[in-house]
Amino acid sequence: MLKRNDEKINGYLFVIVLPILLFAMSYYGFESSYTRLKTSETTPDFLFSSVYAYRVIPNYLSVQMTDLMYNLINGPLSFFKDFLTKNGTPFYHGLFLMNSVFFIGCSLILDAVFKLKSTGLLLNINARRIIHLLSVFFIVITQYAPTNCDTIALFCYLAGVFLTLKYLDTRKNVFFFILIGLIAISTLVRETACLNIAFFAAVFFNIDELKKGNYQVIWKIIPLVVAFLVPYLGLRAVLVKDETTFVEGFYINRNFSSPFNLAGLIFAIIVIYFIYRLCTDEENRSVFGKYFFFSIPYLIMITLVGLFWEVRLFLPLILTGIITAYHQFKKTSEI
After folding, report:
1. I need a surface site. Which of 98, 116, 280, 314 has the fewest CB within 10 A?
2. Domain layout of the chain by residue ranges
3. DSSP state of 118
4. Quick count: other Cβ atoms within 10 Å of Cβ 171?
């Protein structure tokens, strides 16, 4: 009884308390050129223009959380007003609170994923906690570039990874149908929803089965692609304004000329290579390799319109590599 309670307390400390403290340190303990968001009293106008306008769910939540924090600071938390005002604005505090909720969601999902068909080190609970903490650290260190959409998008992505693995293990269609709905909803958050399709394809795609004329995996992937394209194109058809664009800008020249962006690229390459080396089983390396192949469109996009210095763009690939390295994959010859 005491041992069980001790495990629950330790799990609570590792999965919730420690991650949220690290997250708070990244938002309030460190400064960067991106923390000018601290001076924004209201939701910034740029979130409703350019490509950001298509991220409707984060924008809506940002407005609501900013209003909530304003009312709290001038109401129930008025005794704390001086401290809160000194360390941010209603928008920034609301951004932290909103992202904290989804960050804890990410931590809980990672904990659940690492318990699914674990192999190697993760069979030991202490080793599993270290790997979980490493994953959390990767999320935290990318928060020097805080946004209102990336943490929510990461939560949706990890939820999609969990659903894919549950479908792999149980073959219950309910997980597949939920995944379809999740991709449609998460496309309203950020375009990284397409990576859930890449992961699903990496897990189930088998070239040998295609040579035999078994195209079941193709028919499984099509609904996922449709679930992504319908809201993606629908938003761009509905939100037609002069200030909205498909991309914020093209930064490919800056990515390969700026020392900061080159440092971000080298960081991502080294980390991903290190994680690939952790994949000791042939099946795990195969899944990881296929995942990168199906993620090529995403990698091309962040090369053209993203900034390598914002390594949060590589975060889904890094976390997927860690998950892939320690998951026991079944043979996927049949769906």
Report:
1. 280
2. 2-325
3. B
4. 12
**Element spanning 314, H or E:** none
CA-to-CA dists, residue 152 to 260, 276, 294, angstroms: 26, 26, 22
How open is the CA angle 268-273-276, to the nearest 5 degrees? 125
DSSP 47-66: GGSGGGGG-HHHHHHHHHHH
Q: How far apart are CA 16 and CA 254, in angstroms?
A: 38
How far is residue 89's CA from residue 62's CA, in Å, rounded to a whole number?
A: 13
**Listed residue (214, 216, 222) closest to 197, CA to CA:** 222
Q: Answer whether 62's CB lies under 8 Å from 177's CB.
A: no
Q: In sequence order, what E strands does the chain have?
A: none
Name the 3-class secondary structure at 119: coil
Distance CA 285, CA 202 (A): 11
pTM of the predicted model as reported, rounded to 2 decimal places: 0.91
Rounded CA-CA distance 253/144 in Å is: 23
CA distance 249 to 244: 12
Distance separating alpha carbons of residues 216 and 96, to the nearest angstrom: 43
Question: How many CB atoms within 10 Å of residue 83?
Answer: 10
pLDDT (tens digit per residue) in 47-101: 777 777 888 999 999 999 999 998 988 888 888 888 888 888 889 889 999 999 9
